[in-house]
Write a structure and sequence with these properties.
The chain has 139 residues and is mainly α. Among the domains are: 58 residues; 32 residues. It is 63% helix and 0% strand. It is built from four helices and no strands.
Length: 139
């Protein structure tokens, strides 16, 4: 027993009994967990849990797609794009603060002055006028 002021200390007896119970339970659990059937059961349980999670994720993705809402993958892709844009803007800001110049945009491609032979041969067809629509009176 542990230190106590009297030999019949109920709290000391309770602590001793709970410590013995904990040791015996721990020994039993260690033996049970070391057994092969326990490992196989845990493996099967984990596989079932992962399968259920995957099925639920697929179901939610289909439901969100039907409702025309973004899925988790859509939001993650959007987040990555925003992070890329943010990094790019921070890099430009650092260059400007260091006295550099902002990256220059590429010059536009020169305009064509001559049509390709295939377009020059056939003149565009005149557009047909759409028939006028009549409105029905509302009841």
């Amino acid at each position: 027993m542990t230190q106590s002021s009297s030999p019949l200390d109920p709290m000391a007896i309770w602590r001793e009994l709970s410590a013995q119970w904990e040791k015996s339970t721990n020994a039993f659990a260690n033996e049970a967990m070391a057994s092969d059937p326990f490992r196989q059961g845990m493996h099967g349980g984990m596989n079932a849990s992962l399968g259920a999670q995957k099925a639920l994720a697929d179901l939610m993705a289909r439901l969100l797609t039907m409702l025309n809402l973004p899925t988790r993958a859509d939001l993650q892709a959007l987040s990555e794009q925003l992070q890329h844009i943010d990094d790019h803007l921070a890099r430009i800001a650092r260059q400007l603060e260091e006295g550099g110049t902002a990256p220059q945009p590429r010059p536009a491609a020169p305009r064509r002055t001559k049509q390709p032979p295939s377009m020059a041969a056939a003149p565009p067809a005149p557009a047909k006028k759409a028939p006028a629509r009549t409105r029905r009176p509302r009841p």
